[in-house]
């Protein structure tokens, strides 16, 4: 199973602090102030004005989000499990069979999230927990979710998360066995250079892992067949689950071959920013020198530099200047002769300036052109989307900027709809899994002609937002 040994894990259950983590003996107010100062260093390193209206409270908001996302370091499994164990007649020390007395109990489809220890980006988790009761003892079902959440609210990687939840429940409940399966989804954020070279970029990395104790210790045990059969009722493809070993490659995209090539092009990262990230890790109760975290500050800064405040408008103007003249007509244009053109589902990736957390989705663009004029190429529109996406942003501004840029090309009539999923909706305690946000910007005739606007909106494909669902 690869879990912590029993003696060490008992310490974990009692103290609520991961083995090897720094002692949490610094007052929370002081550590929060240290995180806020570190966030200011990161913003300055991106070339941002920390007194800009949209960024004034960003250090505070980021600190609150990180505290919420790593609250598991300050929680104790023992406090949750003790008092939630109940006697149940018919449950003895023998191993039951699924459906029989003392048989298998499963809680499915627990939505969790965690922070990836390799890159500090949040990842989503669909968790399924099962155990076989013994000793005339069952546990309140809600406690299975709460224990899983404690370990998810720490810097994690999928297999260790599964192992730690499995060990905690086995130690706390003393069942005949525990089974944990996780479906983990990690956003694969492209850098601004590679995204133009890879039109088929996959926005997600997925992995399926499982862990077992007791009667589930043997991965070929019959009880696993019972467990997976009950998962199949939910349409879950259990063939993808496997025990990960030390030889398996790290699942985090930040450690992929492509990311390594990008890092080599970027060159040395700002050491002050790297030190700031290490300070954040320590303030959260982690040990920046833990072997899994040694390279994390560099990887996080490398990723964050995709959103540095460079003169994107100048780059964009230089990129577009060759195409503006050929798109505009000379003289008067009759609005009645115009036709609606559209481009749907243009992917984008961006970074919320309020919480420094990713948001992503698709952009739908509609515009009017006169008869005889050629539509704008998809590549050009996608470039406009990417240029405005790779900044510290808010969705409303992103929508407006895309619309205004295209309007400058065409001289007027544009409608833009942005559909996005925001990581901050699941990683700040809100936990609105699967939610999405839509924003709209209208210019020219689209702002005054309801029929043209309605025609475009009705043409948007349903369920267009890429949510990275499990």
From TrEMBL:
GO terms for molecular function: GTP binding; GTP cyclohydrolase I activity; zinc ion binding. Keywords: GTP-binding, Hydrolase, Metal-binding, Nucleotide-binding, Tetrahydrobiopterin biosynthesis, Zinc. The keyword Transferase does not apply. Its EC number is 3.5.4.16. It is an enzyme of class 3 (hydrolase). InterPro entries: GTP-CH-I_C/QueF (IPR043133), GTP-CH-I_N (IPR043134), GTP_CycHdrlase_I (IPR001474), GTP_CycHdrlase_I_dom (IPR020602). It catalyses: GTP + H2O = 7,8-dihydroneopterin 3'-triphosphate + formate + H(+). GTP cyclohydrolase 1 is the first enzyme in the biosynthetic pathway leading to folic acid. Pathway: Cofactor biosynthesis; 7,8-dihydroneopterin triphosphate biosynthesis; 7,8-dihydroneopterin triphosphate from GTP: step 1/1. Belongs to the GTP cyclohydrolase I family. GO terms for cellular component: cytoplasm. One of its GO terms (biological process) is folic acid biosynthetic process. This is GTP cyclohydrolase 1. Residues 35-187, 275-460 form the GTP cyclohydrolase I domain.
């Amino acid at each position: 199973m690869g879990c912590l040994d029993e003696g060490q894990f008992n310490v974990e259950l009692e103290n609520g602090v991961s083995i090897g983590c720094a002692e949490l003996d610094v007052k929370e107010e002081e550590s929060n102030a240290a995180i806020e100062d570190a966030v200011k260093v990161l913003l300055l390193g991106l070339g941002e004005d920390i007194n800009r209206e949209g960024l004034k409270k960003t250090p505070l908001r980021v600190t609150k989000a990180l505290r919420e996302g790593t609250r598991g370091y300050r929680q104790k499994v023992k406090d949750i499990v003790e008092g939630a164990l109940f006697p149940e007649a018919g449950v003895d020390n023998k191993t039951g069979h699924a459906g029989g007395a003392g048989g298998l109990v499963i809680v499915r489809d627990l939505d969790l999230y965690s922070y990836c220890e390799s890159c500090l980006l949040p990842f989503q988790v669909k968790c399924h927990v099962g155990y076989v009761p013994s000793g005339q003892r069952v546990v309140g079902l809600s406690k299975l979710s709460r224990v899983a959440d404690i370990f998810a609210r720490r810097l994690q990687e999928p297999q260790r998360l599964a192992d730690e939840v499995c060990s905690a429940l086995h130690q706390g409940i003393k069942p005949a066995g525990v089974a944990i399966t996780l479906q983990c989804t990690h956003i694969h954020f492209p850098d601004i250079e590679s995204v133009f070279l890879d039109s088929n970029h996959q926005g997600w990395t997925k992995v399926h892992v499982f862990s077992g104790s007791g009667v589930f210790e043997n991965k070929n045990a019959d009880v696993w067949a019972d467990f997976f059969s009950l998962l199949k009722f939910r349409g879950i493809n259990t063939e993808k689950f496997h025990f990960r070993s030390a030889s398996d490659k790290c699942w985090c995209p930040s450690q992929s071959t492509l990311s390594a090539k990008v890092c080599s092009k970027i060159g040395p990262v700002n050491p002050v920013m790297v030190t700031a990230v290490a300070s954040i890790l320590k303030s959260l109760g982690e040990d920046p020198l833990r072997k899994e975290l040694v390279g994390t500050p560099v990887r996080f800064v490398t990723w964050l530099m995709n959103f540095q405040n460079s003169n994107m408008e100048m780059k964009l103007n230089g990129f577009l200047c060759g195409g503006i003249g050929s798109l505009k007509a000379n003289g008067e244009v009759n609005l009645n002769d115009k036709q609606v053109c559209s481009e749907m589902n243009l992917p984008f990736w961006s970074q919320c300036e309020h919480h420094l957390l990713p948001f992503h989705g698709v952009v739908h663009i509609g515009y009017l052109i006169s008869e005889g004029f050629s539509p704008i190429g998809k590549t050009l529109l996608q470039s406009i989307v990417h240029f405005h996406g790779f900044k510290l942003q808010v969705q409303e501004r992103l929508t407006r900027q895309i619309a205004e840029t295209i309007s400058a090309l065409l001289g007027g009539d544009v409608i833009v709809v942005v559909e996005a999923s925001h990581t901050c909706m699941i990683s700040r305690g809100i936990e609105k899994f699967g939610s999405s946000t839509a924003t709209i910007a209208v210019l020219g005739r689209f702002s005054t002609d309801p029929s043209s606007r309605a025609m475009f909106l009705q043409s948007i494909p349903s369920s267009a937002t890429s949510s990275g669902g499990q």
